[in-house]
## 1
Amino acid sequence: MTEDKFKKVIAHAKEYGFVFQSSEIYDGLSAVYDYGQNGSELKENIKRYWKDSMVKLHENIVAVDSAIFMHPEVWKASGHVGAFNDPLIDNKDSKKRYRADVLIEEHVAKIEAKINKDIEKAKKRFGDAFDEKQFRETNSRIIERQKKINTILDRFKKATETGNLAEIKQIIIDEGITCPVSGSKNWTDVRQFNLMFDTKLGSVSENADKIYLRPETAQGIFVNYLNVQKTGRMKLPFGIAQIGKAFRNEIVARQFIFRMREFEQMEMQFFIRPGEEDKWFEYWKNTRIKWHKALNLGNENYRFHDHENLAHYAKAATDIEFKFPFGFKELEGIHSRTDFDLTRHQEFSGKKLQYFDPETNKSYVPYVIETSIGVDRMFLAILSNAYDEETIKKENGKTETRTVLRIPPALAPVKVAILPLVKKDGLPEKAREILNMLKYDFNCQYEEKDSIGKRYRRQDATGTPFCITVDHQTLKDNTVTIRYRDTMEQKRIKTENILETVDNEVNIKNLLKKLG
Ligand code: GAP
């Protein structure tokens, strides 16, 4: 999908009540979004699918709902006060602010794009005989460009590891990186910028303590580790899951809901015996990719990306990347966090956070494998993948385009639309009777305005998997037409079979069963 199509997805999201700019009538707030009537339903369904897959399918995983505000010491212990920074740089001419690491990454991506272009050209020239590996290893231009990339990444890695901000700026200067707005190389020094939002606790703000809006939900799980373990009499290994808002003062917030300042996370901390982390890391990599692939968004749209630059807490980390309209980007992180967090909370709180293992008769601080996914990113993955402009041939030989959201039926905001063919002859009454029968099981929509064709198109545009049309024959033999969103196929079925037919396709249970 091109950037151009991505713009269409964004416009569609607004036009059909999925996503609105926050405070839009006041010209919006940068990188903050609201979910509309359809968006909030889709979001709820994503969360339900995730939570059920964690809690219902694992007898040793439970969920909590911890507060957004936490004791300020939590963020010192977790390392966020000291280390949750991005390096930023300003262009003195355009007055625009950038993340220095992103400028460097984008510069590297441009060189990579040149390599790929050469490869594409060669592929066309040599046809089936083309050997990409050999070409990469022997073509002098590619070798030189790859060497350049490696040198930049090496320098950047060393500079980041040693916190050498002057060196990060020097890379930008040496590589001749220009400001995308002013085109100049007139840069300020690189500074560290902490991503946490802070506020004051208490009614008299001058005397109040500084507290933070949580930048991740994970810490709410760690500080409740012992509460849950004791009250739930949990035995290792066990997991605690949580869905909730997180806040980050992102320097460069772009790409719609991909990087927001207020967003939602679905995180799960899996507490294990030290020494078993490699086994569980693999287990969670496999379990999470299966969860994604069960949605049928196309297996080719996922890949793992192992981290080389590990966060301060991690022993190993991998991203599940998804092919967004703007390329492969992180959708979910899976991290082997060792005993870092619990040990730090022990130190800072002075409370023991250990597990007594009845099998070994020893107490120890458990290790943790974390899975962490952004609800909003998952939403964007689904929405951009679902958006389709399909050319259809009409009976008169002409063509038309229908815009359809092929959202996985189990996640669709509205499951079934009930449409009386005309607004008279007792059809609306019959349609409402059917609606009253279905509304306890599904999110339904009743529509009687406009031609049936227009109504079908509107339902296609919001991703409704089924339309039920009530016509004059319905009054005679109690049958309706059921129309399938993806194929536009229409079938006549008995009214009493609607519930089962729809349920077979839209019940989240079917997705969960694929996960075993
Ligand atoms: N507890 C670990 C943690 O928070 P992370 O990689 O910083 O790790 C996890 O974030 C996930 O949260 C990401 O994979 C992404 O899906 C989502 N996420 C992070 N920052 C985000 C932002 N600014 N806007 C939207 N989603 C974000």
## 2
Amino acid sequence: MDKINGIIENKYTAFSDFKNFDGQEVTICGYIHRIREMTGFSFVIIRTSRDTIQCVYAPEFSDYRWDEKLCEEACVEVTGKVVSSKDAKGNDRYEIQIHNVNILSLPAEMLPIVINKKGLDGVQLNTILDLRPISMRNPKERAIFKLQEGIARGFREYLSKNGFTEIRSPKINFAGAEGGTNVFKLDYFGKQVYLAQSPQLYKQALVGVYERVFEIAPVFRAEHHDTSRHLNEYISMDFEMGFINSFTDIMNMETGALKYIMNLLKTEYAEEVALLHADIPEITEIPCIKFMDAKELLMTKFKYKPSDMKDFDPEEEQLLGKYAKKEFNSDFIFVTHYPSKKRPFYTMDDPNDPEYTLSFDLLFRGLEITSGGQRIHDYNMQVEKMVKCGMNPEEFATYLMLHKYGAPPHGGLGLGLERLTMHLLGAKNVREATMFPRDINRVTP
Ligand code: ATP
Ligand code: MG
């Protein structure tokens, strides 16, 4: 019997290594992205996992003769000579003079949309979403989610470097985390359970174990409205840290993570950034404004009449985004000290003014991307707050184990991955930045 030893033979050369193979023969694998017949030769663009590589077929390059079965979306191995030249800007470019094409598979049907242009311009968002498995083959579409990978990777790398432990909390829960109307209820062998709307209660429990924890995972919100910024399932990038001196420690950690992420995108995702014209923000410091000062500013400077003095509507968020840009040249602004009434039961009230909380939101280009804050760590204070919020502390006995048996001062946040991606792209709809969106009208594909 054969034995498997974990050594992977790689007979293919990556496009990024072509510079080391100038004039030599290499083999690549991928899809035929496009064929352009010219007189006497053809351009054959091969789409590999991250690149599109120009290959040229001409009879004089070898004895190989073009197989007429070859078509767009055929999976092939192409062998040929790497040839370098300079583009108009003087940069090196590489193409392959084809010596052989080995067919690995042929599609059964033609694609229903054109994916081999730069973007999918003119294709409606709904069609793009209906056809996700193939619309994502388009270079621009797939770049969106490669960039998104970079964001999540940056978050993970930065926190790992800062002493955080990665956790995975359950998504089927007996008690609804924060309650409210947007929790999905589920029948669980005759019992009612809930889909996690956040990892909040679990990450707090784990602060009592690991001190600093983070999770990147889906959360579920039964949003009853159809908006351009709400999904029913989204990826929440959460962290929670213990032994903090102030809730500003959390904001500092987030600022550090965002700087790290933006730098990673600029360096290791430069091709995607360029292809998407993604506007990567420069972050040095992020301005902060207190909630009530922001309300005041909106009413005086912007002559805005708020409909709700306890929260912001989307227009107010946009105005604050403009203000941050104009006054501080910042794409981000922290709003702190939200009213106690609007924050969840675990939020620490400001000891100087208990009507407000030691909490914050982060707005990015006029859109909330994060909510966070300091949590209550004292047992009696937490029980009292629950009662005040109309909750039964007995139902939260597991959660309260943290507080009952000793908890450090702590806090954390949740950052919506799709919303951050959306505003990096300058997209109008969060679905554009969601691989397989779930919303009030869509659960497929
Ligand atoms: P909003 O007020 O914008 O509806 P929220 O305050 O209810 O959001 P939080 O519970 O604070 O949301 O969630 C933390 C973060 O998760 C938000 O700042 C946002 O980035 C993201 N988020 C929340 N709800 C959604 C959703 N339905 N779809 C996509 N992302 C979301
Ligand atoms: Mg929020």
